[in-house]
Amino acid sequence: MYKVAIPSYKRAETLRKKTLETLRRGKVPASKIFVFVANEQERKEYERVLPKELYNRIIVGVKGITNQRIFIKDFFNEGEEIVSVDDDVEELLRLSGDDFVKVRNVNKFFEDAFKRLKKEGLFIWGIYPVRNAFFMKNSNKPITTGLKFIIGTLYGFIVRHDKSLEPSKKIESKEDYEQSMLYFMRDGGVLRFNHITVKTKFFAKGGLGEEKGRFEANKKAAEYLQKTYPQYVSIFHRKSGMTEIRLRDGSSKTKKKKQKREKKTRKKLE
């Protein structure tokens, strides 16, 4: 049975109106929901703002999105199924033809996602990173297990207390890109639902991921990732000048792991 972990910082009202309401409408039991805040002062504020019937516990973790996600992983027991979701998710959406429809039973989607994850023999699943019907429609398959970006906005994982799966604390952005690569290298694949996405406002004011020097932080992170994982990462620049990266499956070693995993999965199904 999965649990939901929500890292949040200085956005109690946003969390109440958006993610908690999305989960409530989506039939996710409040008993499954754990909110992680940065300090005692934040805990008191969140307890004041959030209706108790919408969550299970508020837990004091640490400040900083990378540190908080590592804290969350270590907080739960080995083998537990965890859905990590940001505090400003307004809707889960499924691509239907050229348009989107709401995922009304979010609880069932989470349960089915972990069933598929275990079937594939993998440890992390994610969704399409942008709400763009054209891109989603033209992606190769609705569900893939190759190297894809697992965005930190909403993803699920099976807990392993393994330091080698933790993104570097040297960079202040793109930690979810590094996490995607670390899981891929370890397991030979990551599971992504390319027909599922979310409605949210990226880079909104406040929150654990807020960064005033975003251009410089992105540049530093992109250069670090390209240097550290040259077989997977290429750099490009948006018209705004923002430095971004693309992932590519360029490792024969991980491809062999993937083939071995797929062969093992086939035997289980026979």
Structure description:
By secondary structure, the chain is α/β, with parallel strands linked by helices. It has a single domain, classed as Spore Coat Polysaccharide Biosynthesis Protein SpsA, Chain A. The chain is 37% helix and 21% strand. The chain has 9 helices and 13 strands. Strands 3-2-1-4-9-7-10-8 form an 8-stranded mixed β-sheet, with helices on both faces. A 3-stranded antiparallel β-sheet has the order 6-5-11. The longest helix is centred in the last third of the chain and has 18 residues, at 252-269. The mean pLDDT is 91.
Portion in strands? 15-25%
Stated plainly, the CATH topology is called Spore Coat Polysaccharide Biosynthesis Protein SpsA, Chain A
Number of extended strands: 13
Low-confidence segments, ≥5 residues, pLDDT <50? none
The CATH class designation is Alpha Beta
Give me the Rg, rounded. 18 Å
Overall average pLDDT: 91
> What structural class do you assign from the helix and strand content?
alpha/beta
Q: Any guess at the CATH architecture?
A: Alpha-Beta Complex
Number of domains: 1
The shape, in one word, is globular
Number of contiguous helices: 9
Task: Provide a short characterization of the protein structure.
The protein has helices at 12-17, 19-25, 40-49, 65-75, 106-120, 133-137, 175-187, 214-228, 252-269; strands spanning 3-7, 33-37, 57-60, 81-85, 91-96, 99-102, 124-127, 143-144, 154-158, 191-193, 196-199, 233-237, 243-247. The chain has 270 residues and is α/β, with parallel strands linked by helices. Strand 2, helix 3 (40-49) and strand 3 (57-60) form a beta-alpha-beta unit.
